[in-house]
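Anyone up for a design puzzle?
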């Protein structure tokens, strides 16, 4: 199985040994961040530093002149990734024999929410989520689409992996997060992630809902949870019980359509900007109402739009199954086309199983070979390893041994 290791430019730039170290793991590819959210990252082997603090969401290359005068717009990175940090790292990785793909974080940007609060998701209580741009707002959708194309198609890259191309909500792991005091369950997370900005209010109205009445219904549904009642753990069934099935379905229809059209538009923009053969993958969750870095999608739809998906598999690869089923159906449809002498469309979808390989972040590099074998049995075609720059020497040695075995 082809494997790719996630990496930041600051893991590579200034460390002449880094490209060979990453290539020596047995990975054929590096998925290199070109647009990333704020973070504090360990660099345990870098000769010049041990901790990098990326103070805000930024592009890790000089943004194009076409952004001048636009709002929203991407922010250039600061001292943690000066100049064309992506380009410098990409060239070094390519010289080590690695294929380079871009890693682009989109609808996750607390700097944008701080500078322009009206771009953020706002919940039923009126609280804004500055880390979560509302993907229903026209200006934000245009920004995300143009950012996807620019940050994905960088010199030296032969593909891209788009993260958070969908709804973000309450669950975030924000700086010094203090939100775990009341368990919300899957249904409560959904209700707390519904947006009530003007654009979403119009969207609900088009689905026959009054935004004010919906917000009141959400608050009423959550009140027992705030008082200590056990949260619903019934997933979408629980949402229907809390809001009423028709109301719940209408909110989901609006949000699903909003995410799908953004994904279609952004992927099309990347294709238009990219050379022939450029691969476009999305970090994805097969439950369309889920929010976060792995955007909730309909598997059949997203595999008809993108070239594949990156699926979170740390803790178990079960989320691969719906994508594998959709990919199998697409293969059968192509076989039927071929039997009718219809020209074949795109090649088989890439299903990349993403495993955390940093022990201190909940990963299990020691079981990677067995975990990868199980993912392959469930339909995975490639591996993603999070994260070559953050892992300890022992973790990297375990990864090297696993990839050798595979």
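Challenge accepted. My sequence:
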């Amino acid at each position: 199985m082809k494997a790719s290791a996630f990496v930041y430019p600051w893991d590579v730039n200034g460390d002449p040994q880094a490209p060979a170290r990453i290539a020596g793991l047995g990975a054929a590819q590096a998925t290199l961040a070109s647009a990333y959210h704020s973070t504090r990252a360990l660099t345990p082997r870098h000769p010049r530093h041990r901790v990098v603090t990326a103070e805000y969401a930024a592009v890790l290359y000089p943004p194009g002149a076409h952004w001048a005068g636009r709002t929203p717009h991407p922010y250039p990175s600061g001292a943690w990734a000066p100049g064309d940090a992506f380009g410098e790292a990409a060239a070094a990785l390519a010289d080590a024999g690695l294929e380079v793909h871009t890693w682009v974080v989109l609808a996750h940007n607390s700097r944008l929410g701080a500078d322009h609060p009206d771009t953020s998701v706002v919940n039923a209580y009126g609280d804004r989520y500055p880390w979560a741009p509302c993907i229903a707002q026209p200006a934000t959708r245009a920004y995300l689409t143009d950012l996807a194309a620019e940050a994905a198609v960088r010199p030296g890259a032969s593909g891209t992996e788009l993260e958070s191309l969908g709804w973000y909500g309450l669950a975030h792991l924000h700086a010094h997060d203090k939100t775990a005091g009341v368990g919300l369950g899957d249904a409560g997370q959904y209700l707390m992630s519904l947006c009530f900005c003007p654009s979403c209010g119009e969207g609900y109205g088009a689905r026959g809902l009054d935004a004010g009445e919906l917000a009141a219904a959400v608050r009423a549904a959550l009140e027992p949870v705030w008082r200590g009642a056990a949260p619903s753990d019934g997933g979408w069934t629980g949402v229907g019980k809390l809001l009423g099935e028709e109301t719940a379905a209408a909110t989901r229809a609006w949000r699903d359509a909003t995410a799908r059209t953004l994904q279609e538009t952004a992927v099309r923009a990347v294709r238009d900007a990219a050379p022939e053969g450029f691969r476009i993958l999305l970090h994805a969750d097969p439950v369309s109402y889920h929010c976060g870095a792995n955007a909730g999608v309909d598997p059949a739809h997203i595999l008809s739009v993108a070239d594949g998906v990156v699926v979170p598999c740390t803790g178990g690869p079960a989320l691969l199954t719906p994508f594998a089923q959709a990919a199998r159906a697409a293969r059968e449809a192509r076989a039927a086309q071929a039997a009718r002498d219809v020209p074949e469309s795109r090649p088989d979808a890439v299903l990349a199983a993403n495993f955390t390989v940093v022990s201190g972040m909940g990963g299990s590099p020691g079981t990677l070979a067995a975990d990868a074998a199980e993912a392959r049995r469930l339909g995975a075609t490639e591996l993603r390893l999070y994260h070559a720059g953050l892992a300890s020497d022992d973790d990297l040695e375990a990864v090297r041994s696993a990839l050798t075995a595979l």
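A detail worth pointing out: The first strand starts at residue 2 and ends at 7.
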